[in-house]
Amino acid sequence: METSPLILPVLVLVGWTFVMWAWMYATRIPAMRRANIDVNEISRTGAKLELPPEVSRVADNYNHLHEQPTLFYAVALSAAIIGVDDGVAPLLAWLYVALRIVHSLVQATKNVIMLRFSVFALGSLVLFVLLVRTLLWYSGLSVTG
């Protein structure tokens, strides 16, 4: 059985999410220890977990990887299921994944807001184009590269 070239970018983005998960815990647990944070006290009182920005940014990005990328998974897997094979869809999928990785690195390191926003906006546009092309393919109005 031949697999769609859209599957690998989906799996890579899922893998990247686990990279950010590991980075989150690698920064969060030591920061909590240094701050003598008692997780049992936080869970009992509902107190807000106050961590340094460089630690919080990584956790924020991990959470962001569970937001818009879920739309990417739905669109890319839908395109794979219906057999979109125009050659452009995989390029768009890989571009989206690359932009999400760049977004993660920007947010988790220096968090330059305008750069992060620009990368996010470009990724959103790429995802929208992938969606429109997939819808056109599904409707029988396939577009060519």
What key phrases describe this protein's structure?
75% helix, mainly alpha, Four Helix Bundle (Hemerythrin (Met), subunit A), 145 residues, single chain, 0% strand
Can you describe this structure?
The protein is built from six helices and no strands. The chain has 145 residues and is mostly helical. The chain has a single domain, classed as Four Helix Bundle (Hemerythrin (Met), subunit A). The two termini are 25 Å apart.
Any idea what the CATH architecture is?
A: Up-down Bundle
Question: How many E strands?
Answer: 0
CATH class: Mainly Alpha
Helical coverage, percent range: over 70%
Secondary structure topology:
Blueprint lengths: L6 H28 L4 H7 L7 H12 L3 H15 L5 H21 L4 H26 L7
Helix pairs in contact: 1-3, 1-5, 3-5, 4-5, 4-6, 5-6
